[in-house]
Amino acid sequence: MKQDAFSKLHPAVNLLFFIGAIAFGVLLQHPVYLLAGVLASGAYYFMLCGRKGMKNILLTIPLFVFITLFNPIVNTRGATVLFTYFDRPYTLEALIYGVVVAATFVLMLLWFGCYGKVLTGDKFTCLFGNLAPSLSLLLVMVFRMIPSLLQKAKQIIGVRSSIGKGITEKSSIKDKLGSGMTVIGVLTSWALEGSITTSDSMRSRGYGTAKRTSFMVYRMTKADWILTAVMLALLGVIIIFAANGGMNAEFLPERNIVPVNRSNIIGFIAYLGYLMIPTVMNIKEAIQWSISESKI
Amino acid sequence: MKKSNIAMLIVFLALIPLTLFLGDKLPGRGYYITGVLIITELAVPFFMMFEKRKPQARELVVLAVMIALAVIGRVAIPIPHFKAVFAVIMLTGIAFGPEAGFIVGATTAFASNFFYGQGAYMPWQMMAYGAGGMLAGFVFIKNIIPKKPWIMAIFGFLANVFWIGPLLDTSHVFIMMPEISFSSFAASLASGFPVNISQGLSTALMMFIFGKPLLEKLDRVKRKYGMLQSETEAL
Q1: Which of A36, A70, B28, B66 is within CB 3.0–4.6 Å of A29 for a Cys-Cys bond?
Q2: To the nearest whole angstrom, how far is the Cα of A162 from the nearest Cα of chain B?
Q3: pLDDT, tens digit (0-9, with 9 covering 90-100), for A29-39
Protein backbone atom coordinates (compact mmCIF):
# COMPACT_ATOMS: atom_id res chain seq x y z
CA MET A 1 0.00 0.00 0.00
CA LYS A 2 1.23 3.44 -0.87
CA GLN A 3 1.77 5.57 2.19
CA ASP A 4 1.83 9.32 2.38
CA ALA A 5 4.60 11.22 4.13
CA PHE A 6 2.70 11.54 7.41
CA SER A 7 1.73 7.85 7.54
CA LYS A 8 5.39 6.87 7.32
CA LEU A 9 6.03 8.38 10.75
CA HIS A 10 5.97 6.38 13.97
CA PRO A 11 2.37 5.33 14.82
CA ALA A 12 2.60 7.03 18.23
CA VAL A 13 3.20 10.36 16.48
CA ASN A 14 0.21 9.73 14.22
CA LEU A 15 -1.98 8.85 17.19
CA LEU A 16 -0.89 11.95 19.12
CA PHE A 17 -1.78 14.13 16.14
CA PHE A 18 -5.27 12.67 15.79
CA ILE A 19 -5.99 12.88 19.51
CA GLY A 20 -5.06 16.55 19.47
CA ALA A 21 -6.92 17.33 16.25
CA ILE A 22 -10.14 15.57 17.26
CA ALA A 23 -10.10 16.78 20.87
CA PHE A 24 -9.67 20.44 19.92
CA GLY A 25 -12.04 20.04 17.00
CA VAL A 26 -14.70 19.09 19.53
CA LEU A 27 -13.72 21.61 22.19
CA LEU A 28 -13.33 24.77 20.12
CA GLN A 29 -16.70 26.10 19.05
CA HIS A 30 -15.44 29.30 17.49
CA PRO A 31 -16.61 29.52 13.84
CA VAL A 32 -13.19 30.53 12.51
CA TYR A 33 -11.53 27.61 14.27
CA LEU A 34 -14.21 25.22 13.07
CA LEU A 35 -13.75 26.41 9.51
CA ALA A 36 -10.00 25.87 9.85
CA GLY A 37 -10.67 22.37 11.19
CA VAL A 38 -13.07 21.43 8.40
CA LEU A 39 -10.74 22.76 5.69
CA ALA A 40 -7.63 21.11 7.14
CA SER A 41 -9.34 17.74 7.67
CA GLY A 42 -10.94 17.93 4.21
CA ALA A 43 -7.61 18.74 2.57
CA TYR A 44 -5.83 15.86 4.24
CA TYR A 45 -8.69 13.45 3.60
CA PHE A 46 -8.59 14.42 -0.09
CA MET A 47 -4.82 13.77 -0.15
CA LEU A 48 -5.31 10.34 1.40
CA CYS A 49 -8.26 9.15 -0.67
CA GLY A 50 -8.08 11.09 -3.92
CA ARG A 51 -11.14 11.20 -6.13
CA LYS A 52 -13.09 8.70 -4.05
CA GLY A 53 -12.37 10.90 -1.05
CA MET A 54 -13.84 13.89 -2.89
CA LYS A 55 -17.10 11.97 -3.27
CA ASN A 56 -17.19 11.27 0.48
CA ILE A 57 -16.41 14.91 1.27
CA LEU A 58 -19.30 16.03 -0.95
CA LEU A 59 -21.55 13.51 0.80
CA THR A 60 -21.04 15.35 4.08
CA ILE A 61 -22.85 18.42 2.66
CA PRO A 62 -26.39 16.97 2.91
CA LEU A 63 -25.53 15.74 6.41
CA PHE A 64 -24.36 19.23 7.27
CA VAL A 65 -27.63 20.77 6.05
CA PHE A 66 -29.72 18.15 7.83
CA ILE A 67 -28.05 18.58 11.21
CA THR A 68 -28.21 22.38 10.89
CA LEU A 69 -31.95 22.39 10.18
CA PHE A 70 -32.62 19.66 12.74
CA ASN A 71 -30.99 21.43 15.66
CA PRO A 72 -33.69 24.09 16.29
CA ILE A 73 -36.30 21.33 16.47
CA VAL A 74 -34.59 19.79 19.50
CA ASN A 75 -33.31 23.04 20.88
CA THR A 76 -35.77 25.86 21.41
CA ARG A 77 -33.58 28.32 23.28
CA GLY A 78 -32.63 31.60 21.63
CA ALA A 79 -34.03 35.13 21.48
CA THR A 80 -34.91 35.63 17.79
CA VAL A 81 -37.91 33.50 16.87
CA LEU A 82 -38.11 32.80 13.15
CA PHE A 83 -41.46 31.01 13.20
CA THR A 84 -43.45 28.72 15.46
CA TYR A 85 -44.88 25.29 14.79
CA PHE A 86 -47.05 23.28 17.20
CA ASP A 87 -46.41 26.05 19.72
CA ARG A 88 -42.67 25.43 19.58
CA PRO A 89 -40.39 28.28 18.53
CA TYR A 90 -37.79 27.81 15.77
CA THR A 91 -35.06 30.27 16.67
CA LEU A 92 -32.27 31.91 14.70
CA GLU A 93 -29.74 31.33 17.49
CA ALA A 94 -30.49 27.62 17.53
CA LEU A 95 -30.14 27.52 13.75
CA ILE A 96 -26.73 29.20 13.96
CA TYR A 97 -25.72 26.81 16.70
CA GLY A 98 -26.89 24.03 14.38
CA VAL A 99 -24.22 25.15 11.91
CA VAL A 100 -21.64 24.78 14.68
CA VAL A 101 -22.88 21.31 15.66
CA ALA A 102 -22.93 20.23 12.02
CA ALA A 103 -19.44 21.62 11.38
CA THR A 104 -18.12 19.76 14.43
CA PHE A 105 -19.76 16.60 13.16
CA VAL A 106 -18.30 16.91 9.64
CA LEU A 107 -14.89 17.70 11.07
CA MET A 108 -15.00 14.60 13.29
CA LEU A 109 -16.18 12.49 10.38
CA LEU A 110 -13.28 13.64 8.21
CA TRP A 111 -10.63 13.35 10.93
CA PHE A 112 -11.82 9.84 11.80
CA GLY A 113 -11.74 9.02 8.08
CA CYS A 114 -8.09 10.12 7.95
CA TYR A 115 -7.39 8.23 11.18
CA GLY A 116 -8.68 5.01 9.61
CA LYS A 117 -6.44 5.47 6.59
CA VAL A 118 -3.33 6.34 8.57
CA LEU A 119 -3.53 4.10 11.66
CA THR A 120 -4.10 0.73 10.03
CA GLY A 121 -4.51 -2.50 11.99
CA ASP A 122 -0.81 -3.38 11.96
CA LYS A 123 0.14 0.04 13.33
CA PHE A 124 -2.44 -0.26 16.07
CA THR A 125 -1.24 -3.66 17.22
CA CYS A 126 2.33 -2.40 17.05
CA LEU A 127 1.38 0.45 19.39
CA PHE A 128 -0.53 -1.63 21.91
CA GLY A 129 1.27 -4.97 21.52
CA ASN A 130 3.27 -4.49 24.70
CA LEU A 131 0.45 -2.99 26.72
CA ALA A 132 -2.15 -5.65 25.91
CA PRO A 133 -0.38 -8.63 24.33
CA SER A 134 -3.34 -11.06 24.39
CA LEU A 135 -5.81 -8.57 22.95
CA SER A 136 -3.37 -7.49 20.24
CA LEU A 137 -2.73 -11.09 19.30
CA LEU A 138 -6.49 -11.64 19.21
CA LEU A 139 -6.87 -8.70 16.84
CA VAL A 140 -4.07 -9.89 14.57
CA MET A 141 -5.63 -13.36 14.41
CA VAL A 142 -9.02 -11.86 13.55
CA PHE A 143 -7.55 -9.85 10.69
CA ARG A 144 -5.88 -12.97 9.39
CA MET A 145 -8.96 -15.16 9.81
CA ILE A 146 -11.47 -13.00 7.98
CA PRO A 147 -9.99 -13.51 4.49
CA SER A 148 -9.22 -17.15 5.28
CA LEU A 149 -12.81 -17.82 6.41
CA LEU A 150 -14.21 -16.10 3.31
CA GLN A 151 -11.98 -18.29 1.15
CA LYS A 152 -13.13 -21.39 3.02
CA ALA A 153 -16.75 -20.34 2.46
CA LYS A 154 -16.03 -20.15 -1.28
CA GLN A 155 -14.53 -23.63 -1.20
CA ILE A 156 -17.58 -25.02 0.60
CA ILE A 157 -19.93 -23.45 -1.91
CA GLY A 158 -17.80 -24.85 -4.75
CA VAL A 159 -17.86 -28.35 -3.32
CA ARG A 160 -21.60 -28.21 -2.75
CA SER A 161 -22.31 -27.13 -6.31
CA SER A 162 -20.05 -29.86 -7.69
CA ILE A 163 -22.16 -32.52 -5.94
CA GLY A 164 -25.36 -30.99 -7.27
CA LYS A 165 -26.33 -29.11 -4.12
CA GLY A 166 -25.42 -25.69 -5.41
CA ILE A 167 -27.90 -22.87 -5.69
CA THR A 168 -28.65 -20.97 -8.87
CA GLU A 169 -30.59 -17.83 -9.70
CA LYS A 170 -33.68 -19.97 -10.12
CA SER A 171 -33.55 -21.62 -6.68
CA SER A 172 -36.39 -20.81 -4.34
CA ILE A 173 -35.78 -18.53 -1.35
CA LYS A 174 -36.19 -21.50 0.97
CA ASP A 175 -33.42 -23.38 -0.86
CA LYS A 176 -31.19 -20.33 -0.84
CA LEU A 177 -31.68 -19.78 2.88
CA GLY A 178 -31.22 -23.46 3.66
CA SER A 179 -28.08 -23.67 1.59
CA GLY A 180 -26.72 -20.50 3.18
CA MET A 181 -27.34 -21.91 6.65
CA THR A 182 -25.57 -25.16 5.75
CA VAL A 183 -22.60 -23.24 4.42
CA ILE A 184 -22.37 -21.13 7.58
CA GLY A 185 -22.71 -24.23 9.74
CA VAL A 186 -19.97 -26.10 7.90
CA LEU A 187 -17.78 -23.02 7.95
CA THR A 188 -18.19 -22.69 11.71
CA SER A 189 -17.30 -26.33 12.33
CA TRP A 190 -14.34 -26.12 10.02
CA ALA A 191 -13.07 -22.89 11.57
CA LEU A 192 -13.46 -24.24 15.11
CA GLU A 193 -11.71 -27.51 14.30
CA GLY A 194 -8.98 -25.54 12.55
CA SER A 195 -8.61 -23.33 15.58
CA ILE A 196 -7.73 -26.38 17.67
CA THR A 197 -4.93 -27.27 15.27
CA THR A 198 -3.69 -23.71 15.36
CA SER A 199 -3.72 -23.48 19.13
CA ASP A 200 -2.04 -26.86 19.58
CA SER A 201 0.68 -25.82 17.20
CA MET A 202 1.02 -22.52 19.05
CA ARG A 203 1.39 -24.39 22.33
CA SER A 204 3.95 -26.79 20.95
CA ARG A 205 5.98 -23.79 19.83
CA GLY A 206 5.98 -22.46 23.37
CA TYR A 207 3.16 -19.93 23.43
CA GLY A 208 2.75 -18.54 26.91
CA THR A 209 6.08 -19.77 28.25
CA ALA A 210 7.88 -16.45 27.96
CA LYS A 211 7.23 -12.81 27.31
CA ARG A 212 6.35 -12.30 23.69
CA THR A 213 8.36 -9.83 21.69
CA SER A 214 6.57 -7.88 19.04
CA PHE A 215 7.48 -7.28 15.45
CA MET A 216 8.30 -3.59 15.44
CA VAL A 217 8.92 -2.08 12.05
CA TYR A 218 8.64 1.43 13.38
CA ARG A 219 11.33 3.22 15.30
CA MET A 220 11.26 6.73 16.67
CA THR A 221 13.62 8.58 14.36
CA LYS A 222 15.00 12.08 14.81
CA ALA A 223 12.23 13.45 12.59
CA ASP A 224 9.61 11.75 14.80
CA TRP A 225 11.04 13.32 17.96
CA ILE A 226 11.25 16.77 16.34
CA LEU A 227 7.66 16.58 15.11
CA THR A 228 6.45 15.37 18.50
CA ALA A 229 8.15 18.34 20.13
CA VAL A 230 6.62 20.73 17.59
CA MET A 231 3.18 19.23 18.08
CA LEU A 232 3.38 19.39 21.87
CA ALA A 233 4.60 23.01 21.70
CA LEU A 234 1.71 23.99 19.40
CA LEU A 235 -0.78 22.19 21.64
CA GLY A 236 0.65 24.08 24.61
CA VAL A 237 0.18 27.41 22.83
CA ILE A 238 -3.40 26.46 21.88
CA ILE A 239 -4.21 25.47 25.47
CA ILE A 240 -2.77 28.75 26.85
CA PHE A 241 -4.82 30.88 24.45
CA ALA A 242 -7.95 28.77 24.92
CA ALA A 243 -7.65 29.00 28.71
CA ASN A 244 -7.36 32.78 28.47
CA GLY A 245 -10.65 32.92 26.60
CA GLY A 246 -9.17 33.88 23.24
CA MET A 247 -11.14 31.17 21.46
CA ASN A 248 -14.46 31.51 23.27
CA ALA A 249 -17.73 31.51 21.40
CA GLU A 250 -21.20 31.22 22.84
CA PHE A 251 -24.37 30.87 20.84
CA LEU A 252 -27.19 30.12 23.23
CA PRO A 253 -29.13 31.97 24.47
CA GLU A 254 -27.13 34.86 23.04
CA ARG A 255 -24.39 35.09 20.48
CA ASN A 256 -21.09 36.09 22.02
CA ILE A 257 -18.10 35.36 19.82
CA VAL A 258 -14.64 36.62 20.68
CA PRO A 259 -13.25 38.13 17.47
CA VAL A 260 -9.90 36.94 16.15
CA ASN A 261 -7.65 39.97 16.58
CA ARG A 262 -4.05 40.88 17.25
CA SER A 263 -4.17 39.68 20.86
CA ASN A 264 -5.17 36.10 20.07
CA ILE A 265 -4.07 35.60 16.45
CA ILE A 266 -1.07 33.56 17.66
CA GLY A 267 -3.44 30.99 19.11
CA PHE A 268 -5.21 30.70 15.78
CA ILE A 269 -1.94 30.38 13.86
CA ALA A 270 -0.82 27.65 16.27
CA TYR A 271 -4.09 25.76 15.75
CA LEU A 272 -3.96 26.09 11.97
CA GLY A 273 -0.29 25.13 11.97
CA TYR A 274 -1.01 22.05 14.03
CA LEU A 275 -3.83 20.89 11.77
CA MET A 276 -1.84 21.49 8.60
CA ILE A 277 1.12 19.31 9.69
CA PRO A 278 0.16 16.25 7.56
CA THR A 279 -0.87 18.33 4.57
CA VAL A 280 2.28 20.44 4.66
CA MET A 281 4.42 17.31 5.00
CA ASN A 282 2.81 15.84 1.90
CA ILE A 283 3.20 19.04 -0.10
CA LYS A 284 6.82 19.32 0.99
CA GLU A 285 7.51 15.78 -0.16
CA ALA A 286 5.76 16.35 -3.49
CA ILE A 287 7.90 19.45 -4.11
CA GLN A 288 11.07 17.61 -3.13
CA TRP A 289 10.14 14.80 -5.46
CA SER A 290 9.51 17.07 -8.41
CA ILE A 291 12.80 18.89 -7.79
CA SER A 292 14.78 15.68 -7.67
CA GLU A 293 12.90 14.48 -10.74
CA SER A 294 13.75 17.61 -12.68
CA LYS A 295 17.44 17.16 -11.80
CA ILE A 296 17.57 13.85 -13.65
CA MET B 1 -7.82 -8.67 46.69
CA LYS B 2 -7.02 -9.25 43.06
CA LYS B 3 -5.28 -6.58 41.05
CA SER B 4 -8.12 -6.24 38.58
CA ASN B 5 -10.62 -5.77 41.42
CA ILE B 6 -8.50 -2.99 42.86
CA ALA B 7 -8.36 -1.42 39.41
CA MET B 8 -12.13 -1.69 39.14
CA LEU B 9 -12.56 0.03 42.53
CA ILE B 10 -10.16 2.83 41.64
CA VAL B 11 -12.01 3.35 38.36
CA PHE B 12 -15.46 3.48 39.92
CA LEU B 13 -14.63 5.44 43.06
CA ALA B 14 -12.05 7.89 41.79
CA LEU B 15 -11.43 8.00 38.07
CA ILE B 16 -15.00 8.31 36.78
CA PRO B 17 -16.11 10.98 39.29
CA LEU B 18 -12.89 12.87 38.57
CA THR B 19 -13.51 12.66 34.82
CA LEU B 20 -17.08 13.87 35.26
CA PHE B 21 -15.91 16.73 37.47
CA LEU B 22 -13.15 17.87 35.11
CA GLY B 23 -15.21 17.14 32.00
CA ASP B 24 -17.89 19.50 33.23
CA LYS B 25 -15.35 22.31 33.04
CA LEU B 26 -14.44 21.65 29.39
CA PRO B 27 -15.73 24.22 26.90
CA GLY B 28 -17.72 23.54 23.77
CA ARG B 29 -18.77 20.02 23.02
CA GLY B 30 -16.37 18.70 25.63
CA TYR B 31 -18.92 16.16 26.76
CA TYR B 32 -17.97 14.04 23.76
CA ILE B 33 -14.47 13.75 25.22
CA THR B 34 -15.90 13.06 28.68
CA GLY B 35 -18.11 10.32 27.20
CA VAL B 36 -15.22 8.67 25.37
CA LEU B 37 -13.01 8.81 28.46
CA ILE B 38 -15.66 7.25 30.69
CA ILE B 39 -16.37 4.42 28.27
CA THR B 40 -12.64 3.75 28.04
CA GLU B 41 -12.34 3.77 31.83
CA LEU B 42 -15.25 1.35 32.12
CA ALA B 43 -13.72 -1.03 29.58
CA VAL B 44 -10.18 -1.04 30.95
CA PRO B 45 -10.87 -3.27 34.01
CA PHE B 46 -12.56 -5.86 31.78
CA PHE B 47 -9.67 -5.94 29.36
CA MET B 48 -7.24 -6.00 32.28
CA MET B 49 -9.00 -9.01 33.74
CA PHE B 50 -8.64 -10.76 30.40
CA GLU B 51 -4.95 -9.86 30.09
CA LYS B 52 -4.08 -10.77 33.68
CA ARG B 53 -5.66 -14.19 33.34
CA LYS B 54 -3.09 -14.92 30.58
CA PRO B 55 -5.58 -16.69 28.32
CA GLN B 56 -4.40 -19.96 26.82
CA ALA B 57 -3.78 -20.41 23.13
CA ARG B 58 -6.95 -22.49 22.68
CA GLU B 59 -9.17 -19.88 24.18
CA LEU B 60 -7.58 -17.09 22.17
CA VAL B 61 -7.95 -18.88 18.86
CA VAL B 62 -11.57 -19.87 19.48
CA LEU B 63 -12.43 -16.30 20.47
CA ALA B 64 -10.66 -15.08 17.34
CA VAL B 65 -12.76 -17.45 15.22
CA MET B 66 -15.96 -16.18 16.81
CA ILE B 67 -14.91 -12.56 16.30
CA ALA B 68 -14.04 -13.25 12.67
CA LEU B 69 -17.43 -14.93 12.14
CA ALA B 70 -19.19 -11.97 13.77
CA VAL B 71 -17.26 -9.47 11.64
CA ILE B 72 -18.18 -11.45 8.52
CA GLY B 73 -21.77 -11.47 9.79
CA ARG B 74 -21.64 -7.70 9.86
CA VAL B 75 -19.69 -7.05 6.67
CA ALA B 76 -20.84 -9.84 4.36
CA ILE B 77 -24.63 -9.49 4.61
CA PRO B 78 -25.57 -6.79 2.11
CA ILE B 79 -28.89 -5.75 3.71
CA PRO B 80 -28.41 -2.65 5.89
CA HIS B 81 -29.49 -2.95 9.54
CA PHE B 82 -30.18 -6.64 9.07
CA LYS B 83 -26.97 -8.27 10.22
CA ALA B 84 -25.99 -11.51 11.86
CA VAL B 85 -23.33 -9.88 14.00
CA PHE B 86 -25.34 -9.62 17.26
CA ALA B 87 -26.54 -13.21 16.99
CA VAL B 88 -22.95 -14.48 16.78
CA ILE B 89 -21.84 -12.26 19.69
CA MET B 90 -24.76 -13.32 21.89
CA LEU B 91 -24.31 -16.99 21.09
CA THR B 92 -20.66 -16.70 22.09
CA GLY B 93 -21.77 -15.12 25.35
CA ILE B 94 -24.29 -17.92 25.88
CA ALA B 95 -21.76 -20.66 25.13
CA PHE B 96 -18.65 -19.29 26.83
CA GLY B 97 -19.96 -16.93 29.51
CA PRO B 98 -20.24 -13.18 30.08
CA GLU B 99 -16.54 -12.37 29.94
CA ALA B 100 -16.00 -14.06 26.57
CA GLY B 101 -19.18 -12.37 25.36
CA PHE B 102 -17.84 -8.96 26.29
CA ILE B 103 -14.41 -9.54 24.73
CA VAL B 104 -15.90 -10.90 21.50
CA GLY B 105 -18.45 -8.09 21.28
CA ALA B 106 -16.07 -5.22 21.94
CA THR B 107 -13.36 -6.60 19.68
CA THR B 108 -15.87 -7.30 16.90
CA ALA B 109 -16.98 -3.68 16.92
CA PHE B 110 -13.39 -2.52 16.80
CA ALA B 111 -12.23 -4.98 14.14
CA SER B 112 -15.22 -4.57 11.84
CA ASN B 113 -14.67 -0.81 11.84
CA PHE B 114 -11.42 -1.42 10.00
CA PHE B 115 -13.69 -2.46 7.12
CA TYR B 116 -16.43 0.11 7.65
CA GLY B 117 -14.13 2.97 8.60
CA GLN B 118 -13.54 4.17 12.14
CA GLY B 119 -16.01 6.74 13.33
CA ALA B 120 -16.64 9.01 16.25
CA TYR B 121 -19.17 6.49 17.55
CA MET B 122 -16.58 3.70 17.89
CA PRO B 123 -16.33 3.73 21.72
CA TRP B 124 -20.12 3.48 22.01
CA GLN B 125 -20.16 0.62 19.54
CA MET B 126 -17.53 -1.28 21.48
CA MET B 127 -19.49 -0.70 24.68
CA ALA B 128 -22.87 -1.71 23.18
CA TYR B 129 -21.61 -4.82 21.37
CA GLY B 130 -19.62 -5.90 24.42
CA ALA B 131 -22.56 -5.25 26.75
CA GLY B 132 -24.78 -7.32 24.44
CA GLY B 133 -22.47 -10.32 24.62
CA MET B 134 -22.10 -9.92 28.35
CA LEU B 135 -25.86 -9.70 28.93
CA ALA B 136 -26.40 -12.88 26.92
CA GLY B 137 -23.78 -14.60 29.05
CA PHE B 138 -25.44 -13.52 32.29
CA VAL B 139 -29.01 -14.33 31.22
CA PHE B 140 -28.21 -17.87 30.13
CA ILE B 141 -25.74 -18.65 32.90
CA LYS B 142 -25.94 -22.09 34.55
CA ASN B 143 -28.89 -23.34 32.44
CA ILE B 144 -31.56 -21.68 34.59
CA ILE B 145 -33.23 -20.36 31.47
CA PRO B 146 -33.47 -23.15 28.87
CA LYS B 147 -31.52 -22.55 25.68
CA LYS B 148 -34.48 -23.22 23.41
CA PRO B 149 -34.42 -21.60 19.95
CA TRP B 150 -37.52 -19.52 20.48
CA ILE B 151 -36.43 -18.32 23.91
CA MET B 152 -33.09 -17.24 22.48
CA ALA B 153 -34.89 -15.57 19.57
CA ILE B 154 -37.11 -13.55 21.92
CA PHE B 155 -34.10 -12.69 24.05
CA GLY B 156 -32.18 -11.59 20.93
CA PHE B 157 -35.01 -9.32 19.85
CA LEU B 158 -35.50 -7.76 23.28
CA ALA B 159 -31.78 -7.33 23.85
CA ASN B 160 -31.44 -5.51 20.55
CA VAL B 161 -34.39 -3.20 21.01
CA PHE B 162 -33.96 -2.38 24.69
CA TRP B 163 -30.28 -2.85 25.44
CA ILE B 164 -27.82 -2.77 22.52
CA GLY B 165 -29.84 -0.37 20.36
CA PRO B 166 -30.37 2.31 23.04
CA LEU B 167 -26.71 2.05 24.05
CA LEU B 168 -25.71 2.68 20.42
CA ASP B 169 -28.19 5.52 20.06
CA THR B 170 -26.69 7.32 23.06
CA SER B 171 -23.71 8.08 20.84
CA HIS B 172 -25.93 10.41 18.78
CA VAL B 173 -26.64 12.48 21.88
CA PHE B 174 -22.91 13.07 22.27
CA ILE B 175 -22.02 13.47 18.60
CA MET B 176 -24.90 15.05 16.71
CA MET B 177 -27.18 16.61 19.29
CA PRO B 178 -26.69 20.25 20.30
CA GLU B 179 -26.95 19.60 24.01
CA ILE B 180 -27.38 16.81 26.51
CA SER B 181 -30.97 16.92 27.66
CA PHE B 182 -33.91 14.65 28.06
CA SER B 183 -35.45 15.82 24.78
CA SER B 184 -32.30 15.24 22.71
CA PHE B 185 -31.95 11.80 24.28
CA ALA B 186 -35.57 10.99 23.48
CA ALA B 187 -35.10 12.23 19.90
CA SER B 188 -32.05 9.96 19.47
CA LEU B 189 -33.89 6.96 20.82
CA ALA B 190 -36.92 7.64 18.64
CA SER B 191 -34.85 8.04 15.47
CA GLY B 192 -32.98 4.82 16.24
CA PHE B 193 -36.09 2.79 17.04
CA PRO B 194 -36.91 1.46 13.52
CA VAL B 195 -33.28 0.46 13.02
CA ASN B 196 -33.29 -1.35 16.37
CA ILE B 197 -36.49 -3.20 15.46
CA SER B 198 -35.04 -4.32 12.12
CA GLN B 199 -31.77 -5.32 13.78
CA GLY B 200 -33.74 -7.14 16.49
CA LEU B 201 -35.77 -9.08 13.94
CA SER B 202 -32.65 -10.18 12.08
CA THR B 203 -31.04 -11.27 15.36
CA ALA B 204 -34.18 -13.16 16.38
CA LEU B 205 -34.28 -14.92 13.00
CA MET B 206 -30.60 -15.87 13.21
CA MET B 207 -30.97 -17.05 16.80
CA PHE B 208 -34.00 -19.13 15.90
CA ILE B 209 -32.51 -20.89 12.89
CA PHE B 210 -28.85 -20.83 13.70
CA GLY B 211 -28.75 -20.68 17.50
CA LYS B 212 -29.10 -24.33 18.38
CA PRO B 213 -26.76 -25.79 15.73
CA LEU B 214 -24.06 -23.26 16.58
CA LEU B 215 -24.38 -23.86 20.32
CA GLU B 216 -24.18 -27.60 19.71
CA LYS B 217 -21.02 -27.09 17.67
CA LEU B 218 -19.46 -24.90 20.34
CA ASP B 219 -20.42 -27.37 23.06
CA ARG B 220 -18.98 -30.21 21.03
CA VAL B 221 -15.67 -28.42 20.60
CA LYS B 222 -15.75 -27.53 24.28
CA ARG B 223 -16.26 -31.16 25.27
CA LYS B 224 -14.05 -32.76 22.65
CA TYR B 225 -11.03 -30.57 23.26
CA GLY B 226 -11.66 -29.37 26.82
CA MET B 227 -11.99 -25.78 25.78
CA LEU B 228 -11.87 -22.93 28.30
CA GLN B 229 -10.59 -25.19 31.05
CA SER B 230 -7.08 -25.07 32.33
CA GLU B 231 -4.69 -26.59 29.84
CA THR B 232 -3.44 -29.35 32.13
CA GLU B 233 -6.96 -30.36 33.04
CA ALA B 234 -7.73 -30.79 29.37
CA LEU B 235 -4.92 -33.24 28.77
Answers
A1: B28
A2: 23
A3: 888 888 888 98
Instruction: Give the C-alpha separation, A139 to A134, whole Å.
Output: 9
Same domain flag for B184 and B163? yes
Residues of A with Cβ-Cβ distance to B50 under 8 angstroms? 134-135
Q: Give how many domains chain B has, as a whole number.
A: 2
Contact A192 B62 (CB under 8 A): yes
Q: Find the CB nearest A74 among B58, B177, B218.
A: B177
With CB atoms and an 8 Å threshold, state whether A94 touches B178: yes
Say whether both B31 and B60 belong to one domain.
no
If asked whether residues B88 and B124 sit together in one domain, one would say: yes
Same domain, B17 and B68: no
Which ipTM score applies to this complex? 0.82
Specify whether B199 is located in the same domain as B128.
yes
Q: Are residues B171 and B198 in the same domain?
A: yes
Q: 10-residue block means of pLDDT along chain B (235 residues)?
A: 68 77 72 82 82 81 90 75 84 87 90 77 88 89 78 87 85 74 80 86 86 84 66 42
**What are the distances in angstroms from CA B128 to CA A70, A257, B30, B88, B103?**
26, 38, 22, 14, 12
Which of B47, B49, B61 has the most A C-beta neighbours within 10 Å, making it the best mutation to test the interface with A? B61
Between B27, B50, B179, which is nearest A135 by CB?
B50
Domain of B44, in residue numbers: 1-54
Nearest residue to A118 via CA among B114, B231, B66? B114
Chain length of chain A: 296
What is the separation of C-alpha B102 from the centre of its chain, rounded to a whole number of angstroms? Answer: 5
**pLDDT digits 0-9 by tens, A74-106:** 776 766 777 777 777 777 777 888 888 888 888
d(CA B186, CA B203): 24
